[in-house]
Amino acid sequence: MHPATHPTASAPDGRTYRTPLLRRRLLRGMLAAVLTLPLVGMAAACGDDAGSDGKTKISIFWWGGDARAQLTAQALDLYTKKNPDVTFETVWQANQGYFDKLATLTAGGNPPDIFQIDDNYLTEYAARNATLDLKKYQDSGDLDTSKFPPSLLQYGVVDGKLAGLAAGENTQGLVYNKTLLTKNGLPEPTTGMSWEEHIAWAEQVSKKTGVPGTMDASAIDKAFWVWLRQQGKDLYSGNDLGFTVEDVTRWFELWKDARDRGATPTPDVIHEGNATDITKQLVVTGKAGTSWVWVNQMPELKKNTADELGVIAYPGDPSAQWARASMYWSIFRGSKNADLAADVINFLVNDPEAVKLLGTDRGLPSNLDLRRVVSDDTTDEAMKQSIAVETELAETFGDAPQVPIKGHSKVRAELIKAAENAQYGRVTPAEAAAQFVEACKAAIAS
Amino acid sequence: MALTTAPDPTRRGTGSVRPDANRRGTGRIRHGEGLAGYVFLSPWLVGLMGITAIPMLLSLYLSFTNYDILTPLSEVEWIGLANYERMFTSDPSWWHSVRVTLSFALIAVPLKLAAALGVALLLNRAWRGVGLFRGLFYLPSLLGGSVALAIVWVNMFNREGAFNSFLALFGIQGKPWVNDPDWALETLMVLAIWQFGAPMVIFLAGLKQVPTELYEAASVDGAGRFRQFVNVTLPMLSPVIFFNLVLETINGFQGFTAAFVLSNGTGGPVDSTLMYTLNLYITGFTDLEMGYASAMAWVFLIAIAIITAIFFSTGRFWVHYSDGEDR
After folding, report:
1. Is the pLDDT of residue A53 over 70?
2. Which of A2, A8, A10, A435 to mutate to test the interface with B (most CBs of B within 10 A)?
3. In this complex, which of A4, A9, A275 lies closest to B4 when CB atoms are compared?
4. Side-chain half-sphere of A224: how many Cα atoms within 13 Å?
5. Model pLDDT for residues B86-95, shown as the tens digit of each residue
6. Which CATH fold topology does A172-321+407-445 show?
7. Residue A368, min C-alpha distance to chain B (Å)
8. I need a labelling partner for A411 at 20 to 30 A (CA). Which of A149, A207, A441, B19 fits?
């Protein structure tokens, strides 16, 4: 670093000039900075969707694996073929981190026109007005929902607004390792077994095979939810919790008993299984005899194991299960291409060719007519299996519950935390239940 | 920097008091370079303003609001100190993350520095191939906060991981380290300590600066190895120790990547790896409470500033600048 000026050199008269000069230089510097700003802005603007050639680019964002990406791209290509003026900017990624990214995109003012969302987040987005109310397209007929099961359609309604249109239907499915059972001469579990019977069965499996019979479901919200409905309760009632500390205690105790009897893996393995990643489900990693998943995940699970898998309803009365929208298509409220986006969604759920392409990857097709076509046509064994089970369960489906309320994603995280705390034996089921309910109240209050 | 070197117009007009042709020449060129300088500087200025300064100020503002990411900024509500109040009075997970972070930093940072200093002392000898070892020990730090490394770590310290296979050689039954709430944080500490390369290199440089005559004088006075280390090496190295301590403490508090990867972004098992920054991330991006997360970030910033200030104020009691008299 050079010394700025010689202190001896003309300091007195120099000072009188220095200030204005400094200011001018500073101003000039700022000017330079300001001049470059638009450049940066322009560079960013180049990525905008308004094509100059009369074409419109619709951005669309979903989570899923390679298979889903391929199928979706094919369906969208089909749309472009029929509507050459519309092209797509597709972005997809794994489930983990998807909603972080979606939130960031939204905050950055650059959200996709169409995005995939599920019931864990639908209300979070709808309550904050991030989703467009699709009712007007439904009313105008641009969005044809006449072939949808009414309860499935209703499961996308938040505060009287159609926040998302079901991209498919699924329901809870208990997946078990068939190969393991047949090899050891054990009976397969059946729909309608009580929870106690299920745990007794799992205990048998553990003893005979050395592989823990069943994954511990205490941290799994969808299992807890089904169990609650079987007790005449629900996860939510209005804007409040639909259960009490006593309910949670009984749920946690049920599974403590299962762990004590050796029906489940050790807590660290259960912890692995609590990750949402399909490839980490214990039934495919061979660390447990069952996994608690969604029926439409069967084909994806099948890809990750050489063993044969079976799928049934969760234990207890199967009428506690309902036709759940496995995921929705939603349109961002501020989308400039909302009308077109609605047409694309309509195409994805109602066009025979597109629906056939997409198959049951996002769940059974929402359009009942096309659902029949797809189930008749499919050759994929795992897909056939999941369709068969869902169709069978559909006969006993109970009413759909209300869509989970704002704060639900936090509630799920708290359930895992509390249940694991009990699994590791750090607290009693009652303590864990109290901790969970308190945390839930805070989560849904904010 | 450029501002202070502004040439003096008086001097140019009247000729400088000290006739120095060279200086005047560069002065004139500098004048023309001024604008160019700013132009060249502008990407950095834009970056500073756009990526650091403005977002920081915005987050300060947001920390007093209920901003939730999804709502447009124009619609956020000013809620005063409510976020800060909630943090200190009614958020057990905030306090928990403070505890986790403090225990992480209190254990990992001193051990990391000790490891760095120990290895630096070993590598400060003129052994054959010492350069190779320096490189090897520095290697883990090059991999820094990488996600890949964290994934490797998780697999190594699993129930079926390499570490347990190693323990099994000695008949020791290992634990599912990363999946055990009592050990997950410790596993992360070991990872942090293992990456001691950066402070080690700085220690090495510091050790090279210690004049050998001090050791010679000490050994003439009959000081053994240990006395030499305590009475010569440590005091002479204290500025470097201080530098490393400050830097690594700040680093330790900001640990994020490994905890995020190990816990799938949840801070689990049972919040055992819920580092402050991870909690902040979850609050902002998963729970969508960005206003509250901003408040957390500002408390964090102030806390780190205070800790650093404490280090600086205690520094005068133990940091020895040998050239202090010269300045």
Report:
1. no
2. A10
3. A4
4. 27
5. 999 989 899 9
6. D-Maltodextrin-Binding Protein; domain 2 (3.40.190)
7. 34
8. A149
Element (H, E) at A63: strand A56-63
Domain assignments of chain B as residue spans, ordered by start = 9-62, 85-326
DSSP secondary structure of A371-416? HHHHHHH---HHHHHHHHHHHHHHTT-----PPP-TTHHHHHHHHH
**pLDDT tens for residues A70-101?**
999 999 999 999 999 999 999 999 888 899 89
Look at B286 and A413 and tell me if their CB atoms are within 8 Å.
yes
CA B143 to chain centre: 15
The three state secondary structure string of B158-196 is CCCCHHHHHHHHCCCCCCCHHHCCCCHHHHHHHHHHHCC
Q: Where in chain A are the domains?
A: 56-168+325-387, 172-321+407-445
Q: How far is A126 from chain B (nearest CA, A)?
A: 10
CA distance A117 to chain B (A): 14
CA distance A356 to chain B (A): 34
Domain A56-168+325-387 has CATH 3.40.190.10: yes
A33:B46 CB<8 A = yes
pLDDT single digits (tens) A277-290: 788 899 999 999 99
Q: For residue range A214-256, what is the model confidence (pLDDT) as tens digits? A: 999 999 999 999 999 999 999 999 899 999 999 999 999 999 9
Name residues 35-54 of chain A within 8 A of B (Cβ): 35-37, 40
Which of A 423-442 lie inside 8 A of B, CB atoms? 424, 426, 442
Q: Does B43 touch chain A (CB under 8 A)?
A: yes
Judged by CB atoms within 8 Å, which residues 337-366 of A form the interface with B? none
User: B85-326, superfamily in CATH?
Assistant: MetI-like (1.10.3720.10)
Using left for φ > 0, alpha for ψ between -120 and 50, and beta otherwise, residue A57 falls in beta
pLDDT tens track for A150-160? 889 999 999 99
How many interchain CB pairs under 8 A, A with B?
A: 135
Whether A32 and B42 lie within 8 Å, measured CB to CB: yes
DSSP tally for chain B: helices H, then strands E: 16, 0
Q: Predicted ipTM?
A: 0.80
- DSSP class of residue A166 equals E
